[in-house]
Write a structure and sequence with these properties.
Residues 1-16 form the signal peptide. The protein is of the alpha+beta class. The chain has a single domain (17-139), classed as Immunoglobulin-like (Sandwich), CATH 2.60.40. Helices cover 19% and strands 26% of the residues. It contains three helices and ten strands, in the order αβββββββββαβα. The strands form three sheets. A four-stranded mixed beta sheet has the order 2-1-4-8, with no helix packed on it. A hairpin with a 7-residue loop joins strand 1 (18-23) and strand 2 (31-32). The longest helix is centred in the N-terminal third of the chain and has 12 residues, at 4-15. It starts with a helix and ends with a helix. It binds copper (II) ion (CU). Residues 29, 53, 106, 108, 113, 118 line the site of copper (II) ion.
Length: 140
């Protein structure tokens, strides 16, 4: 029989979700999906399935591409380069710790992948949309 304390301890693990994002599917310079809605405590697991890419937070506007080493914070992230050239399909997992929008891109090729549209958003808002971020990235 489960005790009440044991059951309550399980709730966060039950409610937290993992969101899968594919990086470079079909050899494209793209994240899929490009927009992720996630709650605090959720994880986002990025799997690189082609070439050599990074998963790095950056600015919504201005100098979007390339993301700087270490990413743009607060609560930013930077996977560093993850190569699938050996077929290993490396992963990077980010745990969501706040509800504000985060914007990310690949920093490969001095920002060329980012400017080609290799971008994504976590919890975009009505004023900071993924579409506008993508436009900002392409223009940066
Ligand atoms: Cu890339």
């Amino acid at each position: 029989m489960f005790s009440k304390v044991f059951f309550l301890a399980l709730i966060p693990a039950i409610l937290a979700a993992d969101h899968a994002v594919t990086v470079g599917a079909n050899n494209a310079l793209a994240f899929s999906p490009t927009s992720i809605v996630a709650a605090v405590g959720d994880t986002i697991t990025f799997t690189v399935v082609s070439r050599n890419h990074s998963v790095s937070s950056t600015s919504f506007s201005g100098a979007v591409c390339p993301p700087p080493d270490g990413g743009v914070g607060p609560n930013g992230f930077d996977s560093g380069f993850l190569s699938d050239l050996d077929g290993s399909q490396p992963t990077f997992t980010y745990t969501v710790v706040d509800t504000v929008p985060h914007f990310g891109a690949c920093k490969q090729a001095a920002g060329a992948h980012c400017r080609a549209g290799m971008t994504f958003a976590i919890n975009p808002s009505s004023t900071q949309t993924y579409a506008q971020f993508l436009a900002n990235a392409k223009a940066s």
